[in-house]
Design goal:
Layout (H helix, E strand, L loop, with lengths): L1 E2 L2 E2 L1 H5 L6 E12 L6 E8 L4 E5 L3 E3 L10 E13 L7 E9 L5 E10 L5 E12 L3 H10 L22 E16 L10
Antiparallel strand pairs: 1-2, 3-7, 3-11, 4-6, 4-8, 5-7, 8-9, 10-11
Length: about 190
């Protein structure tokens, strides 16, 4: 069944008011990278108790050349979730890429940030890093290109799995978000 062009299957599962998180904003850009022709892929990680009501959970920005103040992407974000439990609050995972003159893409940074849990306007600077690699990988990267990268990008948001990594700080991704929370108070959750 459809209601105003939307499937009612998700709406029927939400017959009782469940707490909702709506994040609206943009990936503004990035600073501090020593690379050119940068673009960003992003993904929203949320636990099994979170239901996506509307929006996209992954995407890619356009390529931009760094200027004095970094790259500008101004890529829109609009994510709307309902939850049964606050565990595994949604996180934004970023991978920043560089494209060379031959169209080859290479990872120059990984990072993540939690979507804020307080309503209102937020500016977030997500610190980015990449694996340092072995000495041989660093030499090969310098002469041939191709930074060391992760086989499984989910490790970026995993608390336990990242310990022991040797990393290199690469830059920051700037995000601006407006957070709207609904029905958290009904369930006794007090938000800042």
């Amino acid at each position: 069944a459809e209601y105003m062009g939307r499937s009612t299957s998700k709406m029927s599962r939400l017959s009782k008011p469940r707490p909702q998180l709506h994040a609206i904003g943009e990936i503004v850009g990035a600073t501090g990278f020593d690379s050119h022709s940068l673009f960003c892929t992003w993904f929203v990680h949320a636990g099994p108790n979170w239901t996506l009501l509307e929006g996209e959970i992954k995407g890619q920005t356009q390529i931009d050349e760094p200027k004095d103040d970094g790259v500008v992407w101004n890529f829109p974000l609009d994510i709307h979730y309902a939850c049964r439990d606050l565990e595994d609050w949604p996180k934004l995972r970023f991978t920043v890429w560089q494209q060379d003159l031959h169209g080859r893409n290479d990872v120059v940074g990984y990072g993540f940030c939690h979507i804020p849990s307080a309503p209102g306007y937020h500016e977030l600077d997500c610190v980015m890093w990449r694996p340092a690699g072995t000495f041989a990988q660093q030499i090969a990267s310098f002469f041939i290109g191709g930074n060391p990268h992760l086989e499984h990008e989910e490790l970026v948001v995993s608390d336990e799995e990242r310990f022991g990594f040797r990393t290199v700080s690469t830059g920051k991704v700037r995000v601006q978000l407006n957070i709207i929370l609904k029905d958290f108070d009904i369930h006794g959750v007090v938000c800042c």
